[in-house]
What does this fold into?
Amino acid sequence: MNRIRTPLYLVALAVTAALSGCVTQPEPLYYWDGYQQQVYQRFENTNSTQEQITALEESVQKARAADRTLPPGFHAHLGMLYAEIGKADQVRQQFETEKAMFPESAEYMDFLMRKFAK
Amino acid sequence: MPVLNAIKLFAVLVSLAVLAGCATPQPYDYSAFKESNPASILVLPPVNKSPDVKASYSVYSHITLPLGEAGYYVLPVAVVDETFKQNGLMNAEEIREVSPQKLHEIFAADTVLYIDITEYGSSYMIVSSEVAVSATATLVDLRSGKELWKGVARASSAEQQQNSGGGLAGLLITALVNQVINTLSDRGHEIAGIASHRLLSSNTLNGILPGPRARPTTAR
It folds into this structure.
């Protein structure tokens, strides 16, 4: 009897562990950090473009350190801000990054780069 | 006699099926949505029907998170807004008038999402005041012009803090939204975040379907 009881106990433990494993929250797809607030601040016009860029650049560093993916639109948004302060190289780099991460954006990114080049 | 019994059994089964049909809520017809199988969503600036002028941009800045986590590519909302402005379209009502063909030509998105804000901000009552946000959303295929999905949601400060449904992924998004709103003092914007999450998460009853970038765990 004892021989049977021990494995059963172990099975119960394993099942409990497996079930509690299921309860763990899934990790979000993206590293949102302050992106949504930055979008809101952009609309509300409460911060300067440079301040907005600095905040987003910090998110880029944090996402890299955490080895996480930035959300859709992030790099395009940052590219737009660089365009406002005339940093042409960074504009292209950000739009190309958006395109590489999300091929769904390709045509719109090309449209923006054509507009910016004019 | 066996024939009669079979008929009786059949009648009981039919009535059970009918009763069961009555008990379940009307399921959403996703056939057009599934046929379209969209990967990207262009969200237009929401049309505001509330008296608060801040409503449109407040909701607009919240919608990327639920749709992104639902597995869709969401076109960058601030950049999209800028593109419209550079083309002389300064407000949400004018932008709403742009044809699906034109939108597809510029943004090359699979779908467009139209949002109407029907309620935003404070309403003062005799015993209490509440801050509430209500919105409706309509997803339209930009290639075929077909309507794929419609949804409606409301959030209010008068509610008890509770799980808004949607299981684990719902909890996760609630946590993300809370993280964002805890750093803000703007109550209307905070409630708008919860309303946007309810409106556009892929794990709610009759909600938007998960997109191609969604993890298998968020599938229904």
Remarks:
- The mean pLDDT of chain B is 84.
- The first strand of chain B starts at residue 40 and ends at 43.
- Chain B touches chain A through 44 residues (CB under 8 Å).
